[in-house]
């Protein structure tokens, strides 16, 4: 059983005090009369409160909608779907013409701050619970620290300066605070993850499988450091995971994305978003993933709703796979691929003029209902730790060996074989090699925009890469936007600006 099945994981714990944080919070209401006045009394209360802090990860504000945009805003994919206003929020992001009322912009902000405040409640209330197993108390606090860091990592990368809450606000004055500078937000993220590493166990079993571990926190800290440009610190954390976690890479890349393997999600994954099916609902705020349906080939009748065809791989992305790279077959559908029912992928479909679709999150009609796939989404994998280490140390022997472990697996070789295919064949230098491996290893895992953004100011940054991309697509008759400096962050939601006079909009929006 996974986290999403925990009892009471989804109820909202007395968040009425958050009214000034935005109108979306006002729409949330407790499903019973539990309040923080009569809750937080027992160990089970602490566990349920911690479970609630996880629940935003499976909703529209995170991995069931908002995070999808960060491949579409990069050079991996375009929106797809039908014509007209189908997927208009993603089309706005693809065009880099993003209003402050954009659905994705609003949901990511609102959902992330709900997650932050649930974590804050745990950190404020759980220390005072008497007669609690010290190991469980430490674990709950570590999980909350990890989750607060994760939500703030998303917020600060997307919006830049954001309000920093480390305790639940109790008065309007505590709610309506201004934005905190990026450096201070990152300092808090680092502090939370270092504390979480000390509080969390190294592994779980049974019903607790899927909770954040010390290795999840260590891996996220490595990713935070590499994002900040702290390469020496990132290398230390990545090495710690590689040598100490006991994780191993699946021999076959595709095995990372099979529901049948989720009872082993501790094998290569450091942290996964835990999805389950069975609710049989058209609702992206439940515990099932909707990506099987939304990303499935449109009208191909391979999913319960026949497929919507969103998030279409771009032609040069597909053509950029090297010969023999097994990640291609695991990640994308191309014309002629055979579906489970024996039909084949079309050479052209609505929203996909070249016949490409995302395959990585495909489950088909087996063990799923409507927008209700059980396939987990890995957020941190051991393979990424090797790539972070390679990026951090450069093209010395350690860096080359780290990137080659990932490449050997990609080309069907044992990861401990003597060599990999020539990683420099299609790239000018080692930095380009690492970014290229990240592009294909982590394809459609929603990292690409962040990778391009953190190389802003270089030839590998968002603006030059996407300018070249737009010019190339124009030759194919595909139009997409070209980002400017303002697009290195997204707009602050208009509803938040209206609710909190202390907030200021990002420049250019």
TrEMBL record:
Residues 24-225 form the SusD-like N-terminal domain. Residues 267-509 form the RagB/SusD domain. Its main location: membrane. InterPro entries: SusD-like_N, SusD_RagB_dom, TPR-like_helical_dom_sf. Pfam families: SusD-like_3 (PF14322), SusD_RagB (PF07980). It is found in: Cell outer membrane. The keyword Membrane applies. Residues 1-19 form the signal peptide. Transmembrane segments: none annotated. Belongs to the SusD family. This is RagB/SusD family nutrient uptake outer membrane protein. It comes from Hymenobacter glaciei.
